[in-house]
């Protein structure tokens, strides 16, 4: 089977396909609720000149953030919007990937770099500037960017 | 009508083969009545972050048989819990849950059913369609008294004819295969070796 090298750690490609499928089924619902299209939380420049280890750590921080700050608060809304099944697919697969990356981190396979920490803080600052409902919807609507960053690490 | 004591459905367990996951339980029987059941599930994410959250099963919100195909509910390689309650009219039992959580990486993988054939000098293989997660690792070789060079091919999906090799006239070729399921990082045992002989050369 094909492996998906996430920096120095690997995640199966088939799991990424499940994530894309789940996101496709919530995309239109969630992105339609985001009226603030000038603001982008996950910026392309975060990846410019970033090493694979840095990308790995940035994604680790973002996955952790999404699970404990975005998904956790959007669960009821997901139920109201009728997107709970794909939403829980995203959440549980993110959880599984985070657990795997946790193992890689503990084995020292990717290091905490200053620049990836700074980029993650930029993301957090941008996130907290927005009002609570808006930022959750925007963050969820940008999961495709996060998935693309994971895929970028595979090539 | 007089309230009947409705026990929680006992003996909940998941039976999983080739990534098809079936939840079963023992029926709750009330003489002269039809008892229905409702199934909900929780992944490791929900248990860890929002433990009071349970999600209705895709296919079993109100069913009368003590069995539910939960394949579409289990969409990550994490530990899942299920709960079932009995429903009779306006009455519901308490929930019963799994004794042991279920992770799809424990599914039983059987070796694949395979059909080999020839089209002229072409060695063809075909597998049953086992679903989106299944790939097939095919090993094949030309039988010969001295050396036996094994070749490999990954077949990405079942249900279609795949060309393996152009055979030498009169030679015998053998094939064996196993399934590979990437999302759980496991593969099945190899199936029975099957051999086929290429036709001899056409007389000039």
UniProtKB/TrEMBL annotation, chain A:
Gene Ontology CC: extracellular space
Keyword Disulfide bond recorded: no
A Gene Ontology molecular function term of the record: cytokine activity
Keywords from the UniProt entry: Cytokine, Secreted, Signal
Keyword Signal: yes
Listed SUPFAM superfamilies: 4-helical cytokines
Name of a matching Pfam family: IL22
Main location: secreted
Subcellular localization, as worded in the UniProt entry: Secreted
Annotated Gene3D superfamilies: 1.20.1250.10
PANTHER family referenced in this protein's UniProt entry, alphabetically: INTERLEUKIN-19-RELATED (PTHR48482), INTERLEUKIN-24 (PTHR48482:SF4)
Stated family: Belongs to the IL-10 family.
Name of the featured protein: Interleukin-24
Protein encoded by which gene: IL24
